[in-house]
Amino acid sequence: MPVYMKNMLLLFYCLLWLIPAHARIRNGFNPELSVARNAIQALNKELLRSDLSDRERRRMHTAIKQHLSVIFSYQLTEELMNQMSLISPHIYTELNELKDRRGRTTDIYVRFIPQETSSEGLSGASFFRPSEIDEDASYSRYGNFTVAIDIWICDAALNLLAHEFGHTQYIVPNLAAYRKFYRAAYGGLIVPGRIGHSGGDQSGKLAYKYCHRFLRERRDFRANFGELQKVVEIARQVRRNVREEFEDGGNTSVASAYEY
Ligand SMILES: [Zn+2]
Hints:
Blueprint: H1 3-18, E1 25-27, H2 30-47, H3 54-87, H4 89-96, E2 107-113, E3 124-127, E4 129-130, E5 138-140, E6 143-144, E7 146-152, H5 157-171, H6 175-186, H7 202-225, H8 231-248, H9 252-257
Parallel strand pairs: 1-2, 2-7
Antiparallel strand pairs: 3-7, 4-5, 5-6
The structure holds zinc ion.
Zinc ion binds at residues 163, 167, 196-197, 204, 207.
């Protein structure tokens, strides 16, 4: 390689170090994925043993089913986030570049979850907890400089995601001030569905704005590219893919344990 090319490459790598990393919208099931895959592999091996009792086998099938549901959830979340980025690339990019008040990148971890596993009883929820670092840093179960968003798997899943993106886009750069506002506006409120939408809540206003933007962009997308696959159809397809992947591994015991 000529010397000037080596120098250019070196410059390129230096620039990569200098440019601050962008925040990322991430799949909230990511941390669990490799655990689930490894566990299924290990359980499959165990199931080949001939000295297992029926009870042990049943226990392993149940465990496999739980791990498969993580893989299903991960892949469904991937598909829905892809659809979001296709329909609303601008909203997606804005959130992908999210920073807090001090200019630090903040990652957004998104999960699409079945209604019955939602702890908050809300169809869409964003989680911002106080961080020990400082009052402007956002903390969630994924660590410092992160936000967690949970959305129910339903027909309106992407509308709900756009709505939560609006809350997030406002709250992260205004975290300390919003926390004060939140305590004053919602302290003692026992109806969680109203939180985020009092009259003066700017995050609620942005949430509605993002949802309207998303609906407009979805209409344009349909006009240009045709009908979109429904969430229930995507879920069915993902379920089929996961089933095929594990059946292709020649594992009939997994197939029999596998239902959603
Ligand atoms: Zn809201």
